Amino acid sequence: MNSPTAPGTLTRPSQNRPGLSLLSFNMQVGVGTKRYREYVTRGWRHVLPSQQVRDNLDRIGELLVGHDIIGLQEIDAGSRRSQYRNQIEHLAEAAGFEYWRVQVNRDLGRVAQHGLGLISRYTPFAVSEHKLPGRLPGRGALIARFGTPENNLAVVITHLALGAGSRARQLAAICDLVAQDRHVVIMGDTNCTASALIADPALAASGLRVYDRPLPTFPSWRPRRGIDHILTSPSLEIDEARVVDSVLSDHLPVHMRIGLPNTLATALNASHAET
Is there a contact between 136 and 165 (Cβ–Cβ < 8 Å)? Predict the structure, then answer.
């Protein structure tokens, strides 16, 4: 078993240690807000198609290249505003990935198919979709397990509520869902800072680590708050963590490279070779 490291600790990458490159990004359905007033002046792009959004999706596709597992929030799975195109399928094809999955959490018919997206170089052996508790509906968690049932990596994609009470219940629900998994990654827009996550009792009890060095992601044009995070279990070493300076949404993406135990890496590679 790998020795746990303190929250936020960076370890020197080993040339002999296998790893994964992760990316978490609230992509704002490709709208690409660059200043506060655009929430009003360009808000129509959230309901109607535009060439700007199509061009922005192409740039997001370029951003994904080189990563292994990508978690995306605020995606559209195919409605009028995306010209009935599944944005995750489009991005996966553009960036050369074979596997993708979507969880629609707010089905507004032709107006919006709003949800979460997973894109991966590995094909999971199990995927599940979960509704999360809260005052308002529409929050969920998409969980993919990679490797083998005996030795797997559980990856959770989520977008948590704005309210602290709902957020706490949602974090508790997620922790319960992965309580039996040894190797866990949670990535998403948590709508709160690292200090708030560290203080959460369910996360503290779970043993999952919060990367607590400053990673400001919002707003993208003048980032001041770190509300997008990648959490890891102690078995996964954090080799690198940084914000990607690419203004393609009102959030900035978060990149993390993690080191894997050799047994987990072997299971991942074996499952990858079989697909």
Answer: no
- 184 within domain boundaries: yes
Q: Write out pLDDT tens, residues 146-187.
A: 999 999 999 999 999 999 999 999 999 999 999 999 999 999
Q: How far is Cα 92 from Cα 119, in angstroms, rounded to an integer?
A: 6
Proportion of the chain in helix, strand, coil states, percent, rounded to 5: 25, 30, 45
> Could you list the residue range(s) of the whole structural domain that residue 197 is in?
20-274
Residue 271: count of CB within 10 angstroms of its CB: 18
CA distances from 199 to 131, 193, 263 (A): 24, 10, 32
Query: Cβ distance 146 to 153 under 8 Å?
Result: yes
What would the two tokens of residue 237 be? Answer: 């070493």
Query: What is the band of 275 on the pLDDT scale with cuts at 50, 70, 90?
Result: low
Place of tokens 């990858």: 272
State both tokens at 260.
């894997």
What's the maximum distance between 2 C-alpha atoms anywhere in the chain?
53
Considering Cα of 114, then 86, then 147, then 237, what sign does the dihedral take? negative
CATH number, position 49: 3.60.10.10
Please report whether residue 10 resides in a domain.
no
Fill in the DSSP letter of residue 13: P
Beta bridge partners of 229: 188
Q: Which amino acid is at 63?
A: L
Residue 79 has a pLDDT of 87
Tell me the pTM: 0.91
